[in-house]
Amino acid sequence: MNEIHNTPIDLTTQAVGITATLKVENAGSDLVSEVLLAFPDDQAKHLAYLTATNNEGKGKAKSSSVSFPVDVVRPKGMPPSLTFYSVSLPKGLGKGDSLTLDVLAVFAHALQPFPERISQADIQLVVFYETAHYLSPYAVKVQSLSVKLPDARIESFSKIENTKIHGSEIKYGPYENLPPFSYSPIAVHFEANQPFAIAQQLIREIEISHWGNVQVTEHYNLVHEGAQSKGEFSRLDYQARPHVRGASAIRHLVAKLPPRAHSIYYRDEIGNISTSKLWGDPKKTELVIEPRYPMFGGWRTAFTIGYGLPLQDFLFHLEGKRCLNISFGSPINELVVDTLIVKVVLPEGSTDISVSAPFPVKQGQETKFSHLDVVGRPVIVLEKTNVVPEHNQHFQVYYKFSSLSMFREPLMLISGFFFLFVACIIYMHADLSISKSSPSYLAKLQWDEVQAGVQQVRNIFDRCLTAHDKLEASLRDLSRTGDVQACKASWKAVDNLLKDLSKDLKPLLVSLQSSPQAAQILPKVEELIAKERELQEKLMVKHSTVVDSYEKKLSGREIENRVALQQQKITALRQEVDDLLDFIDEI
Description:
Transmembrane segments: 411-430
Shape: elongated
Oligomer: single chain
Number of helices: 7
Pathway: Protein modification; protein glycosylation
CATH architecture of the largest domain: Sandwich
Membrane topology: Single-pass type I membrane protein
Distance between the termini: 108 Å
Pfam family, one: Ribophorin_I
CATH class of the largest domain: Mainly Beta
Subcellular location: Endoplasmic reticulum membrane
């Protein structure tokens, strides 16, 4: 086979696009059904997008191109360190037949910053390596190469035979009668101040609601992969001369959203970012995203954009199924994505799910639970690496969904509120009190009676202790005034009070003794009564001794000696009575 090549290389963006126009002719006698494309291994690892289409006609007469299948192959007898792709032809080429192909190859991370570190005031230079001779396993009759640069400022480039430069374009060739695998390395070192915006990871979540909305949420982890910034950043210098003191910085990004996009937001982990701008017309909606700070080489940021889309613009009915037709890649211009994950969240109850994508992607499925979900919503997960703007094509998700399932969640809400109101009505009209004839109710009544009786006993003992205090107070008055008759009168009044309290205590004690519920507290009550009576007797004896001593005109020292032993017993008994009262209070 012989080939004729015209190969323009576009270096105006960070995604390098190489478009080769190949006129393939079968010079042999056998039928040819495929065309092999060869790339060096170090270049193939950066290959992000490869397509081959037929080229018929020119200009307005050019017919619509047909894309041919392209697959990785390992043909035998070929040189090592090369990666081969096979373009399958729909119709074999016979002897002397020819076919013109347009082969588009897009490479990510193919431009290397040189120098790798620059200051804020330096311009950004990059270097690109390629071969002036189109690398092919076939003989080449005629071939030429052109390199289109973003600017006419070229630091250096390889000068070989038939090299010309016109402004920002370098041309190599034409070269004729090149043997198979002809290779002539070239390098172009040039100024490229365009931002090298790389999304190390982009997660797009597309959630379908059959109530009329498609919600799209995109989470970006962005890095500037141009020449690394060195030295300090001066905000003053940047604001004074942004195109000089930050020529390669990312100042803003432009996201081209679908028409009629609404409810658009742009935020990061801090909150909403108000430096974005939005405008649109019936054909498009553009969102200008400005980061919180200008991004220089090596700097990173993370943010989220979200927007809603009208359901009728993207969901269609097709052969008994519903079909979602929406774009795959990022809406941001000239963004390269290292890892793109697209999650399509379908309504709960979706079945018979299938995906159609225009290029190979890794597929998976998971489940997401949201409000009122029972079994969860099926989520189709599509993953692809080295995604370039050429991947921003439409893909389709097909599934079956019953319209009646739309009313499941509203009916669940209505049923929930209905049963709640019914439960409230039943609760308000139901008698939930305990039956008066039940054992638990009777036991509660008996315990309430015991508590009331114990409280009355407690009140009587408080009055007894108060009477004891009055006896002690009368003795103190006697020592101060010497009035024996007044002290005897106080003793008589206290004695009468204690007798009355003793009478009041008897029926309460009988009631406690007859109640089974008082079995736990009754021994302590009886012990309290005994201790109080003993205390009462000791106080009366002490009172009589002191009064008798005053009548005999004894001295204060002698009186204290006569009642010292009695006072010790009174103090101990009073402490025991107080402890028993505390114990009864706890029960």
